[in-house]
Q: What sequence folds into this?
């Protein structure tokens, strides 16, 4: 089965995730609760394309009710404070996932570290009083599997931007890619956030400046990678797995790897496979959650905190 599948509705897109994974919407309160993924405003795009609204990956996300319709009374069981491990689908914002969980749980909800709309995978959502403990889960290690397209750069460092192909004499070998990953992208090193990120520069989100055709004045910041491995390679796609600390941008990795190799570099897909001890194997598609949520759908906060212990 090929790694990538066609996806024609995204600007400049030739492939998307082969069904095989951090940054806050510009106005998360404008997203109605339970919005179907094909109606999410992220997918609808906007005139100042690229249209993805990247979220701030360093801030716990909490869905807000301002401007939304009054929710119907919750008729389900009273749920304990706890976590729900979600497998976020492609195209859905993290805050839309939170809104879906909040509606089905009948409790306030928030996430412990966002995913880009075009990324998939583990999103840890807290409900009830567990939202006060989300920072503890944000500080855990993250694991990702990404397909890096070395044939082109994009302005967004993912498939949302227009492809800017790079001519090269010969593709790099798998050995060369593995060497660069080990030498340049392991341990603690400075990383420049993507231009299309939610980092603030002089009080303005970087992506807002980038959409105006300007380059935001971002500064590199230290990140830490514990493990990075090339697991598959067939030009131009390099499949890389990485285990890192909070604050690492997978899109920046793709861009910087391409620069180091003298090729292009952007993420054709990103899938988060783990947040601390919570893995993709225990994650649930938000659309598959029962409504109202049963007590069995929630991992009690006390049990979740125990899993954080070394």
A:
């Amino acid at each position: 089965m090929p790694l990538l599948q066609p996806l024609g509705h995204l600007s400049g897109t030739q492939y998307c995730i082969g069904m095989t994974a951090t940054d806050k919407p510009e106005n998360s309160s404008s997203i109605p609760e339970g919005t179907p993924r094909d109606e999410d405003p992220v997918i609808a795009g906007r005139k100042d394309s690229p249209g993805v609204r990247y979220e701030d990956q360093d801030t716990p996300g909490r869905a807000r009710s301002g401007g939304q319709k009054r929710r119907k009374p919750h008729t389900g069981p009273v749920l304990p404070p706890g976590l729900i491990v979600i497998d976020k689908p492609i195209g859905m914002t993290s805050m839309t996932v939170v809104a879906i969980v909040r509606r089905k749980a009948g409790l306030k909800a928030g996430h412990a570290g966002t995913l880009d709309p075009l990324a998939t995978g583990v999103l840890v959502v807290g409900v009830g009083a567990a939202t006060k403990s989300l920072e503890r889960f944000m500080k855990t290690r993250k694991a990702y599997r990404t397909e890096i397209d070395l044939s082109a750069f994009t302005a967004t460092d993912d498939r949302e931007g227009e492809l800017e192909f790079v001519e090269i004499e010969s593709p790099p070998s798998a050995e060369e890619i593995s060497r660069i990953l080990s030498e340049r992208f392991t341990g603690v090193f400075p990383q420049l956030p993507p231009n299309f990120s939610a980092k603030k520069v002089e009080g303005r989100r970087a992506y807002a400046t980038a959409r105006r055709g300007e380059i935001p004045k971002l500064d590199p910041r230290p990140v830490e990678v514990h493990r990075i491995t090339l697991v598959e390679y067939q030009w131009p796609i390099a499949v890389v797995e990485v285990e890192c600390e909070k604050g690492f941008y997978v899109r920046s990795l793709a861009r910087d790897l391409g620069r180091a190799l003298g090729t292009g570099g952007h993420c054709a897909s990103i899938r988060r496979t783990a947040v601390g001890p919570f893995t993709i194997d225990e994650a649930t598609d938000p659309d598959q959650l029962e409504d109202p949520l049963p007590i069995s759908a929630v991992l009690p906060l006390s049990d979740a905190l125990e899993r954080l212990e070394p």
The chain is about 20% helix and 25% strand. Residues 1-51 have pLDDT under 50 and may be disordered.
